[in-house]
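User: Working on a comparison across species. This one is Phospholipid/glycerol acyltransferase from Marilutibacter maris. Can you predict its structure so I can line it up against the others?
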Amino acid sequence: MVGTIPDLPKLVMIAAPHSSNWDGIWGFAAKIALGLDVRVLGKHQLFWWPLGPLLRRLGAIPIDRRAPRGMVEQAAAMIREAERMWFVIAPEGTRKPVKEWKSGFLKIARAAGVPVLAAYFHYPERVIGIGEVFHPSADPAADMARIRQWYRPWIGRNRGTV
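Assistant: Here's the predicted structure for Phospholipid/glycerol acyltransferase from Marilutibacter maris:
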């Protein structure tokens, strides 16, 4: 683990590049080792018995990606109402290669009034890292471009950079 964990009570953390099921395993291992209280969005298909109860206990929240309506406000409300909450999302929304990231993490951060923390997987050096804190602006396209550029050096397990 590299980087400094910020002393912020609430934020949206993005973890990328997300290209393997191993990302979740290593991410949960880091959460436990560092004692982080985070909530992680995961596709609802992962929440079958016996994995579902374990994932929920680890702080995972199932999301049905076929029905995303209202998810931004639900997530923002959870963050606003909590005393402390780090909300983790894979910005790609999938392990498959994508041309564009989903913008939900920026929408959630903006609606909750919290910053975005960049975390990364860099498999060539077997590193999980904590990076920059980004504060969403009024220009989501510029924010996304800036964040994507920051992620350029990091390489996922099953494909190159984001």
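For your comparison, note: The longest strand covers residues 127-134.

User: Helpful, thanks.
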